[in-house]
Amino acid sequence: MDPVTAPAPASLEVSGLAFAYPDGHQALFGVDFRIARGERVALLGPNGAGKTTLVLHLNGILSGGSGTVTVAGLPVGKRHMAEIRQKVGIVFQDPDDQLFMPTVREDVAFGPAAAGIRGTALQERVRTALERVGMLDFADRPPHHLSFGQRRRVAVATVLAMEPEILVLDEPSSNLDPASRRELADILRSLDVTVLMVTHDLPYALELCPRSLVLSEGVIAADAPTGELLCDEELMRTHRLELPFGFAPKSVTMGA
């Protein structure tokens, strides 16, 4: 194929991924999926399905099982680990797990500075990341003086400052008031990155992610448009996924 027209590698490709913890608990039994550049995909599933185990394989925090994980054409492994960890940005459920510096600006600068970026290039990374989450005016504030929703947006900025290929969000809407939830949704829709969103918040998944994967008992049990999945009552019941009382998936206009 002509290299000019060759398709870009997938942002994320997982093939045959199986993993057991040292105590013998088998968390993943052979996970396969592919996410194209720029897609927004929700990872759904009941507690204990293996979602956290899967996410921790995406940037090599966990390894040692079988199968492969490839990020933007690079296999996840020791050889490419530094590059992989810049390409896969994980935003954890509790922003206080990621914010530990005296000011917002220093928190956002920490990752790029550790990667060797200095001077005006570093300042530009910080400014751009904070602008993208609407927090530039708070750059010199201590993170612990911010609201929970503001801290979550700063946590997203700390990851965006690394210019990742993939943004992985763990329960991004948890503990947010309705206004903060909407603001974060607007930010996520505006980003030009691949998004994998791990969530129990099915309406949020429907609003933000055109496609969803259901991980259940260590395998991908379903991979389909989010609206279709949420309307499949048997699938939902089988995998312990429940919509809020009165919520009708067909009534929601999907995010672009």
Your description of this structure?
There is one protein chain. The protein is globular, with a radius of gyration of 18 Å. The protein has nine helices and ten strands. Strand 9 and strand 10 form a beta hairpin. The mean pLDDT is 92. Strands 6-7-8-3-9-10 form a six-stranded mixed sheet, with helices on both faces. Strands 2-1-4-5 form a four-stranded antiparallel sheet, with helices on one face. With 256 residues, the protein is an alpha/beta fold.
**Residues in β-strands, percent:** 15-25%
Class of secondary structure makeup: alpha/beta
Q: Segments where pLDDT lies below 50 for 5+ residues?
A: none
Overall shape: it is globular
Strand order within the widest sheet?
6-7-8-3-9-10
Question: How many alpha or pi helices?
Answer: 9
Instruction: Specify the helix fraction band.
Output: 25-40%
Q: Mean pLDDT across all residues, rounded?
A: 92
Q: What is the helix/strand order?
A: EEEHEEHEHHHEHEHEEHH
Spatial separation of the terminal alpha carbons: 31 Å
Cα radius of gyration in angstroms: 18 Å
Largest sheet: 6 strands, mixed
Q: Tell me the number of strands.
A: 10
What secondary-structure arrangement, pairings included, does this model have?
Layout: E1 12-20, E2 26-35, E3 40-44, H1 51-57, E4 66-71, E5 74-75, H2 81-87, E6 88-91, H3 104-114, H4 119-132, H5 148-160, E7 166-170, H6 178-190, E8 194-198, H7 202-208, E9 211-216, E10 219-225, H8 226-231, H9 233-238
Parallel strand pairs: 3-8, 3-9, 6-7, 7-8
Antiparallel strand pairs: 1-2, 1-4, 4-5, 9-10
Helix pairs in contact: 3-4, 3-5, 4-5
